[in-house]
Design a protein that fits this description.
By secondary structure, the chain is mainly alpha-helical. The chain has one domain. The protein contains four helices and no strands. Helix 2 (about 20-40) runs antiparallel to helix 3 and helix 3 packs antiparallel against helix 4. Keywords: Membrane, Transmembrane, Transmembrane helix. This is DUF4233 domain-containing protein.
Protein backbone atom coordinates (compact mmCIF):
# COMPACT_ATOMS: atom_id res chain seq x y z
CA UNK A 1 0.00 0.00 0.00
CA UNK A 2 2.82 2.38 0.79
CA UNK A 3 4.31 1.87 -2.66
CA UNK A 4 0.98 2.84 -4.23
CA UNK A 5 0.70 5.95 -2.07
CA UNK A 6 4.28 6.95 -2.87
CA UNK A 7 3.64 6.41 -6.57
CA UNK A 8 0.60 8.67 -6.36
CA UNK A 9 2.76 11.41 -4.85
CA UNK A 10 4.11 11.99 -8.36
CA UNK A 11 0.98 13.36 -10.08
CA UNK A 12 -0.13 15.24 -6.97
CA UNK A 13 3.25 16.95 -6.66
CA UNK A 14 3.26 17.90 -10.35
CA UNK A 15 -0.34 19.07 -10.76
CA UNK A 16 -1.22 20.53 -7.39
CA UNK A 17 2.11 21.62 -5.92
CA UNK A 18 3.79 22.56 -9.22
CA UNK A 19 6.90 20.46 -8.53
CA UNK A 20 9.20 19.83 -11.48
CA UNK A 21 8.14 16.59 -13.22
CA UNK A 22 11.68 15.22 -13.11
CA UNK A 23 11.95 15.65 -9.36
CA UNK A 24 8.43 14.35 -8.74
CA UNK A 25 8.99 11.21 -10.83
CA UNK A 26 12.38 10.53 -9.29
CA UNK A 27 11.08 10.88 -5.75
CA UNK A 28 7.59 9.39 -6.05
CA UNK A 29 8.15 6.51 -8.42
CA UNK A 30 11.70 5.95 -7.17
CA UNK A 31 10.52 5.44 -3.60
CA UNK A 32 7.63 3.27 -4.78
CA UNK A 33 10.05 0.95 -6.59
CA UNK A 34 12.38 0.89 -3.58
CA UNK A 35 9.43 -0.06 -1.33
CA UNK A 36 8.61 -3.06 -3.49
CA UNK A 37 12.26 -4.13 -3.72
CA UNK A 38 12.83 -3.85 0.02
CA UNK A 39 9.62 -5.78 0.74
CA UNK A 40 10.97 -8.60 -1.41
CA UNK A 41 14.25 -8.68 0.52
CA UNK A 42 12.87 -8.78 4.07
CA UNK A 43 14.44 -12.20 4.67
CA UNK A 44 17.79 -10.41 4.86
CA UNK A 45 18.65 -8.33 7.94
CA UNK A 46 19.86 -5.27 5.98
CA UNK A 47 16.40 -4.92 4.43
CA UNK A 48 14.99 -3.82 7.78
CA UNK A 49 17.47 -0.97 7.88
CA UNK A 50 16.70 -0.10 4.26
CA UNK A 51 12.97 -0.20 5.06
CA UNK A 52 13.50 2.17 7.97
CA UNK A 53 15.36 4.56 5.68
CA UNK A 54 12.44 4.37 3.24
CA UNK A 55 10.09 5.35 6.07
CA UNK A 56 12.18 8.44 6.82
CA UNK A 57 12.24 9.32 3.12
CA UNK A 58 8.48 8.80 2.87
CA UNK A 59 7.99 11.33 5.67
CA UNK A 60 10.39 13.68 3.88
CA UNK A 61 8.18 13.62 0.78
CA UNK A 62 6.00 15.93 2.83
CA UNK A 63 8.20 18.72 1.53
CA UNK A 64 6.75 18.01 -1.94
CA UNK A 65 3.22 17.07 -0.87
CA UNK A 66 2.44 18.29 2.67
CA UNK A 67 -0.11 15.56 3.49
CA UNK A 68 2.74 13.07 3.19
CA UNK A 69 4.09 14.27 6.53
CA UNK A 70 1.00 12.69 8.08
CA UNK A 71 0.82 9.64 5.81
CA UNK A 72 4.54 9.02 6.18
CA UNK A 73 4.18 8.95 9.97
CA UNK A 74 1.23 6.55 9.66
CA UNK A 75 3.26 4.17 7.47
CA UNK A 76 6.28 4.48 9.76
CA UNK A 77 4.07 3.54 12.73
CA UNK A 78 2.80 0.52 10.80
CA UNK A 79 6.39 -0.43 9.94
CA UNK A 80 7.50 -0.25 13.58
CA UNK A 81 4.42 -2.17 14.74
CA UNK A 82 5.05 -4.92 12.17
CA UNK A 83 8.66 -5.30 13.33
CA UNK A 84 7.66 -5.46 17.00
CA UNK A 85 4.87 -7.96 16.38
CA UNK A 86 7.15 -10.14 14.25
CA UNK A 87 9.80 -10.20 16.98
CA UNK A 88 7.20 -11.15 19.55
CA UNK A 89 5.80 -13.94 17.34
CA UNK A 90 9.26 -15.28 16.51
CA UNK A 91 10.14 -15.34 20.20
CA UNK A 92 7.09 -17.48 20.97
CA UNK A 93 7.80 -20.22 18.42
Amino acid sequence: MEAIVLGLVTPVAIVINKVSPGIAVAVGLGLAVVCVLVAGMLKRPFAYIAGSVVQVLAIATGFLVPIMFFLGVVFAALWITAILVARRVEGVT
